Amino acid sequence: MKYRRRYMTREEFDARCARLEELCPYLSATSGVRELDRNRQVGGHPESKHLRWNDRESSSGHAGIPHVGARDYVVNQAEAIDDFDGELSFEEIEARLIDIAKTLGLWAVNHDNGSGIHLHVQGEAPGGWSFKGDGW
Q1: Total Cβ atoms within 10 A of residue 71
Q2: Largest CA distance in the chain
Q3: Which residue ranges in the chain fall short of pLDDT 70?
């Protein structure tokens, strides 16, 4: 399936995340905007979309590039399975979440960066780094 995604404003990103949370009430946000120190503490990439600003110099020499944002969500497995009347496995639900997020115009991937598997969504295309595995 081809998804129609484009760079969005922070307001659009927030609205789409709110819609994702409305459609999937078994999601709990665990991370949003981070300060640099917190990003370092959790092992975040220096160019993480969780940072409000990219404080590293860009390839064009400009510092302080604004990011739209990123959010991480954990899934309450029991609630999610119940929401699908037990007809889908948890792995199928995770795949469905990616599809829902992408349909909303978000970039999304399920990944584990050492803190446990979670759904990561962001309002702009990945750049400068990548996750292991598929999903974007």
Answers
A1: 26
A2: 53
A3: 1, 32, 35, 39, 45-48, 50-67, 113-115, 127-136
Q: Please, what CATH class does the domain formed by 10-31+69-122 belong to?
A: alpha beta
Contact status, residue 127 vs residue 67, Cβ threshold 8 Å: no
Question: Is 34 strand, coil or helix?
Answer: strand
d(CA 76, CA 128): 31
What lies within 8 Å, CB to CB, of 56 at 6+ separation is 46, 47, 63
DSSP letter for each residue of 90-131: HHHHHHHHHHHHHHTT-EEEEE-SSS--EEEEESS---S---
Q: Give me the residue spans of the domains in the chain.
A: 10-31+69-122
- Residue 46 is given by DSSP the state T
The answer to whether 106 and 21 are in contact (CB under 8 A) is no
Q: How far apart are CA 68 and CA 49, in angstroms?
A: 7
Partners of 118 in the β-ladder: 111
